[in-house]
Design a protein that fits this description.
Elements: H1 25-32, H2 44-47, E1 50-55, E2 60-65, H3 78-87, E3 94-99, H4 112-117
Parallel strand pairs: 2-3
Antiparallel strand pairs: 1-2
């Protein structure tokens, strides 16, 4: 008898938490804010496309991100744009960017600044 994968426990976050206490976190966020989706005049961090920023004690950065839609025309390029931006942060040793569509991006993931910029507030 085989067992299927169990669904996440109730209350388990859909998005892994970021390393917000790491000294490089704010600089990495600012680097992510320099990357824009060419079709939307808001940076990808405020759009809510950056799900998780994990920074190790050795300053290796792992970013889990998504796109507004799987068929986004820059799907193959945007992770590299993020990697290039974050690699420029002083102190960062390496950068790994992973793409995910789970959970799917929604407009509720945008910051208030993004909603205001796009006229949703």
């Amino acid at each position: 008898m085989t067992t299927d994968a169990q669904p996440p426990l109730e209350g388990t976050p859909l998005i892994q938490p970021s390393s917000t206490e790491h000294p490089l976190h704010d600089s990495v966020v600012e680097a992510c804010r320099t990357v824009f989706d060419p079709e939307i005049p808001v940076n990808i961090y405020d759009l809510g496309l950056i799900y998780t920023i994990t920074i190790s004690d050795e300053n290796d950065v792992r970013i889990i991100m998504t796109l507004t839609a799987p068929g986004c025309p820059v799907a193959g390029e945007m992770p590299q744009w993020v990697q290039d931006a974050v690699e420029c942060v002083a102190g960062v040793k390496s950068v790994d960017v992973e793409m995910t569509f789970d959970p799917q991006w929604g407009m509720d993931m945008m910051s208030d600044e993004a909603r205001l910029e796009l006229g949703f507030m």
